[in-house]
Amino acid sequence: xxxxxxxxxxxxxxxxxxxTLLTGIVYPLSVSAVAWTLFPTPAxxxxxxxxxxxxxxxxxxxxxFPSRQSSTTEAALLTRGVSQLYLSLGDPNDDGSxxxxxxxxxxxxxxxxGAVVMFLGGALSLSDRxxxxxxxxxxxxxxxxxxxxx
Length: 150
Hints:
By secondary structure, the chain is α+β, with helices and mostly antiparallel strands. The protein has two domains: 1-36; 39-132, no CATH class. Helix content is 39%, strand content 29%. It has three helices and seven strands; from the N terminus they run αβββββββαα. The protein has helices at residues 2-38, 111-126, 129-133; strands spanning 46-50, 53-58, 61-65, 70-74, 76-80, 83-92, 98-105. The strands form three sheets. Strands 5-6-7 form a three-stranded antiparallel sheet, with no helix packed on it. The protein is flat and about 110 Å long. The N and C termini lie far apart (107 Å).
């Protein structure tokens, strides 16, 4: 019985393995090869060292698009606590070297703290019972009851 089930499942398993190899290995490698050919990217792997200890690797890149005759720069980010390092590639120099720009933004992640404070302020204002239920309205002055005419 097990061999009969295996014989029935064999075409399915063969197609599954073939498609897995095709979509998982062959297609990504072919797309990467075409991308590397059409869009050569000078990349700079930079070790970030503090007190002799490597704390990160930053890899900015600069892409050139010959059809539009333009280039773009992809900055690299390294987050350390509430600060970030930005590293971007500059234009190439006459001797073939590439200038890099390194920016240190010490408290940039605290910008998100402002959004958290605004959210908490909104939640606090919604917690006021008078606004949720409605404050009781003062009673209107009673008018004298009308007397029937005699």
